[in-house]
Amino acid sequence: MALVEFADFSFKYLGADSLALRKVSASVNEGEYVVITGPSGCGKTTLCRTANGLVPHFHRGYIAGNVFIDGQNTRDATVAKLASTVGLVFQNPANQLVTLNVEKELAFGPENLGVVPEEVRQRVEEIIDLLNLEHLREKHPHEMSGGEQQRVAMGATLALKPKVLVADEPTSNLDPRSAELILDIIANLNKRNGMTVILVEHRLDLVAKDASRIILMDKGQIIADGIPRDVLSMDISSEIGVGIPKATQVYKRLQAKGIELSRVPLTGEELALLVGEAKRR
Amino acid sequence: MIMIEDVHFAYDGIYTALQGVSLQIEKGECVAIMGTNGAGKTTLVKHMNGLLRPQHGRVIVDGADAKNLSIAELSRIVGLVWQNPDHQLFLDSVRKEIEFGLKNLGFTPEETDAQCTQTLKNLGLEGLAERSPFALSGGERKRVALATVLATEPQVLALDEPTIGQDAQQKELLARMLMDLNDRGRTVIVVTHDIEFVIEHFPRTIAMAEGRIVADGSTSSVLSNEDVLERCSLTLPQLTVAARALHKAFPQVSERLTLLSELEDAVSGILGGTQ
Fold this sequence. Notes:
Number of helices of chain A: 12
Strand order of the largest sheet of chain B: 6-7-8-3-9-10
Largest sheet of chain B: 6 strands, mixed
Shape of chain A: globular
Distance between the termini of chain B: 44 Å
Number of domains of chain B: 2
Order of helices and strands of chain A: EEEHHEEHEHHHEHEHEEHHHH
Strand content of chain B: 15-25%
Order of helices and strands of chain B: EEEHEEHEHHHEHEHEEHHHH
Helix content of chain B: 40-55%
CATH topology of the largest domain in chain B: Rossmann fold
Helix content of chain A: 25-40%
Structural class of chain B: alpha/beta
CATH superfamily of the largest domain in chain A: P-loop containing nucleotide triphosphate hydrolases
Largest interface: A-B, 51 and 55 residues
CATH class of the largest domain in chain A: Alpha Beta
CATH class of the largest domain in chain B: Alpha Beta
Oligomer: heterodimer
Radius of gyration of chain B: 20 Å
Largest sheet of chain A: 6 strands, mixed
Number of strands of chain A: 10
Distance between the termini of chain A: 45 Å
CATH architecture of the largest domain in chain B: 3-Layer(aba) Sandwich
């Protein structure tokens, strides 16, 4: 059974005049790393909110179809109940941090779920270790840089021990190095710890290499779903204005001139490598 | 147009956000300000329209010392678009948001209407004019905040992280609009982490770290300086990475290529395709 399953799901926010999601069907299995992308306003954030029950329990509206998280229908489950299965990280960490120091921030979630104190303490230490937060332990979130805040926000979410990490443009406010660090942490959680990841991101040049799959959305619908090399080299991806990695764009332009590389490159290094290979052939 | 002389600023008098910043931006320039989170970029642009006042040093805008001008007077000259649109939007329709600034600056109802319609069109927001900004997506709200300032056509347009949450097409649209304003003599300043956006559209880059300017010059020279990239937490764009990797195997490829077409031509050259 899929960990996350959208079954012909549609949603319209209360007061809105068009559907935010139109008959979305997709399933995400354990251990996958799925990147969701598409033009602004296409329904990416709504899809994230759907995965942890914020839609329809907090953001109200009209629904059709179903969403199943680890077998539970989100219509019947509360946000609190889903929180231990799906952890959501927002774009702006300041919207998510609520306490006065990092230890308290990490403990806040599990305490609220009624986890026993010894276990809470253990999880806090694990997360501090995992995300390299030791030097921030006693710091107030407002004294931290944006990148540090986002690491803490992600830590607070991971402290709930979710089965799926859903992150909605978690690096868009960060400088490039901090963004890389956060994205590396996410890739490692997936690779080493087998964490299932659903990530919304525009900057595909940074994430395509780590993702196992890309879902492309437009106007509330899924219009492509497959492995990154396939989806990013489809014409539809450039037509709707997705940020195709530059290396992939070079590949497409060369192909149009009759120059074939042996596969679709996703990074600059890979492009150089494939060109070297083609030259030797 | 804007001259900043040895400006210092500390929030709460403790955390020093700017530690002696000096720069000059001429009328009609197109300048990018880049740097680490917390480098002082936002603090700097807030000095340009009087939202913050220097605790030491001077800010000269359009020939006048900014300390003698009110925020209202300064914001007629320098329009600032905030990083977080939610700090800027407060009315219940997109059209009202755009009209608000125009009315306050004394535009007539006819002018207000014309400017509003044109701006909605330029930013691809026509279909959203009667919607509440709060029912829009993050990327759309960002464009509405931009529209409210763009509509007033200030002499200097300063944008704090305008590309956040924008897809490739919106970014292209935004760039075209900024370049169009620039062609019409407006000064454009952006604070951004988006290195590709800067390389493609901004001839001058100011790099900041820890409240100071660490480099100021042509974008190509500033962004190819390893030391600057390191200090400002910037990473090389994918095309430059590709160019450098290609240069190692094929020395005839310049390692400083930054445009898609340049790299395409270089690879065609190596693999002998039809030009």
